[in-house]
Amino acid sequence: MRPELKIFEIKDFTTLSGALLKKWSLTYEVFGKELHSAPVVVVNHALTGNSDLLSEEKGWWKTIIGDNKLIDTKRYTVIAFNIPGNAYDGQFIENYQDFSSRDIALLFNQALKGLNINEVYAVIGGSLGGGLAWEMAVLKPNYFKYVIPVACYWQSSDWIIGFNEVQMQILEYSSKPLEISRMMAMLFYRTPASLQAKFGRTKTADGSLYNIESWLRHHGNKLNNRFEISAYRMMTHLLTKLDITAQKESFEEAVKPIQSKIIQVAINTDWLFVPEETIRTKEKLDELGIANEYHEIQSIHGHDAFLIEFEQLENFLKPVFS
């Protein structure tokens, strides 16, 4: 059974753009060992995710988190925040332009401090969640023992920014904004080989649609039924704004103070956060003498492989969590 949402009250928070967030109930869930009784692992969710890591029906990383799993809830306290504006907790943000990914990282770190957590064993996240892990580490370079960004990059590339702009235009002008946005995005989360292997040009039972068409419509309708347009705008905007060099002269200046070990996990077929970006980051970290590892998931499934190829992910991260 999923725990009830917990609340950390945020008051008088000023975003980097100068907007005042007078009050916000930052919601989160805690799994595993009681807080302050075990090492803490923070898990950041992706664009359409939330704090529900483990529920039987919708827990999005329950394959690697739980009792006797990779991140063992018998050994760790696992905390998952809801990104403000994701609407999972019934709270909405319409003025999404006032926020950046750095603001979200500031809020998460503020909450961890407010919960009297003196150190975090690991922060991990996939896609947008991994980008936020980067941001959190730059803000508190001595706080996290391990920083584990999965299927992401520390800065939004031109490709990501362009992709997100198309998403925003669909949200603005489509008669079915969430459905069409999701359908378009699903094609980029996978690869041609993945979809060919899954569907092979087969058709639905009544022959009216190709199964790929039916699958895309299903995911579009599914997101429309569980998500909000304002939340999709907010999360897409945050993905566009990822940049740990904001207010810094360079990548080197941003990461040089980090004392954490950084473990990057890329995907060889990722169309969104291409592995070449992560490889270049490893080279820079090596030059700076920052402890780091690079691992690469081999998969036909593209960006979504971090939610599919659990065995490879477990093999990479067992040394951290064993």
Topology, element by element:
Elements: E1 6-14, E2 20-32, E3 40-44, E4 65-66, E5 71-72, E6 77-81, H1 101-114, E7 120-126, H2 128-139, E8 144-150, H3 158-173, H4 177-189, H5 192-199, H6 211-226, H7 229-240, H8 251-255, E9 261-267, H9 275-288, E10 292-297, H10 310-321
Helix pairs in contact: 1-2, 3-4, 3-7, 4-6
What characteristics describe this protein?
alpha/beta; single chain; eight-stranded mixed sheet; 20% strand
Q: Could you explain how this protein is built, in words?
A:
With 322 residues, this protein is an alpha/beta fold. The chain contains ten helices and ten strands. The protein has helices at 101-114, 128-139, 158-173, 177-189, 192-199, 211-226, 229-240, 251-255, 275-288, 310-321, and strands at residues 6-14, 20-32, 40-44, 65-66, 71-72, 77-81, 120-126, 144-150, 261-267, 292-297. Strands 1-2-6-3-7-8-9-10 form an eight-stranded mixed sheet, sandwiched between helices. β1 (6-14) and β2 (20-32) form a beta hairpin. The radius of gyration is 19 Å and the shape is globular.
Give a summary of the structure in a few sentences.
The protein is of the alpha/beta class. Helices cover 38% and strands 20% of the residues. It contains 10 helices and 10 strands.
